[in-house]
Amino acid sequence: MGVYRHEAQRVGHGTIIPEMTDTLAARYGGRPSPATTRARWAVVALVAAVAIAILVEAGLRAGSPAVTFQVNSFTTTTHSVTVEFSVTKAPLAEALCVVRSRDVSGLEIGRASVLVGPRRDGRRTTDVRYTLPTQGVPNTGEVETCRIVRSH
After folding, report:
1. Phi, psi (5° rounding) for residue 85?
2. Which 8-state DSSP code applies to residue 66?
3. Pairing between strand 80-88 and 125-133?
4. Which structural domain, as residue segments, surrounds residue 126?
5. From residue 71, how far is each of 40, 74, 136 by CA, in Å?
6. Are residues 53 and 77 in the same domain?
7. Do 109 and 145 belong together in one domain?
8. Do 42 and 109 fall within a single domain?
9. Three-class secondary structure assignment of 103-118
10. What is the DSSP letter of 97?
């Protein structure tokens, strides 16, 4: 038939000669039992579930920062700006926020770091009112960043 001895031979409509399959089983091992196959799939499913759980946890941590802030309003005078903003964080954490002001051309004319301390009443949001002296006539008052500096 032109088939090498180590290859399984098909006869008729796909019938495999039994002695050849026995030789292959001896050489490569037989088929795993159904219990072994189920155990392998269980391990694969467990590893996949753990990997998905780790990715979801990492995504949740990245998606929910430890501190958020929002500028509620600002009012300007000739040489200062008063910025009212809210900081949301863990109640006992301390945050450091950078408040700044720019003039009508966009040039920064004032900057300060404002410490937002812990809250003993358990509330997460702190309303802050800060007056920033400026080196010119302010056009804006903004909170550039807030970050946690101490977490209890």
Report:
1. -145, 160
2. S
3. antiparallel
4. 68-150
5. 55, 8, 21
6. no
7. yes
8. no
9. CCCCCEEEEEEEEECC
10. E
